[in-house]
Amino acid sequence: METTRQAKIARLIQKELSEIFRQQTAKTHGIIISVSTVRVTPDLSIAKAYLSVFPTDRAQEVMENINSSARTIRYELAQRVRFQLRKTPELHFYLDDSLDYIENIDALLEK
């Protein structure tokens, strides 16, 4: 059960991460990264961000780059939310492949 505080912090982190990735991908044309969901642990120390990457064939490469620069992303996030949060949670990034799963189910149902 997610508390109200966890939900508010998750929405704040999702909004700010989306903006950070939008600015970064504006430099690299043809790649879109969207933050599907953010889940925060009850002690607010870890935030799990689920990312959707388009085009999907480059998703693994993009996720490796994001995971290697997680500390930089956390620092930039901390600069943006410094007046709302005392301590910025540690960020863990996961690939959200739910859209691919939905497309696969649709394709199977059409057969």
List the helices and strands and how they pair.
Blueprint: H1 4-27, E1 32-40, E2 46-54, H2 59-68, H3 70-80, E3 90-95, H4 98-110
Parallel strand pairs: 2-3
Antiparallel strand pairs: 1-2
Helix pairs in contact: 1-3
Describe this protein with a few key phrases.
3-stranded mixed β-sheet, alpha+beta, GMP Synthetase, Chain A, domain 3, single chain, globular
Largest sheet: 3 strands, mixed
Number of helices: 4
Q: How large a portion of the residues is in β-strands, by DSSP E? A: 15-25%
Strand segment tally = 3
CATH topology: GMP Synthetase, Chain A, domain 3
Terminal Cα separation, in Å? 39 Å
Q: What count of domains describes the coordinates? A: 1
Q: Would you identify the CATH H-level superfamily?
A: K homology (KH) domain
Which structural class matches the secondary elements? alpha+beta
Based on the structure, what is the oligomeric state of the protein chains? single chain
By CATH reckoning, the class would read Alpha Beta
User: Low-confidence parts, pLDDT < 50 over ≥5 residues?
Assistant: none
Shape: globular
CATH-defined architecture:
2-Layer Sandwich
Helix content: 40-55%
Q: Measured on Cα atoms, how large is the radius of gyration?
A: 15 Å
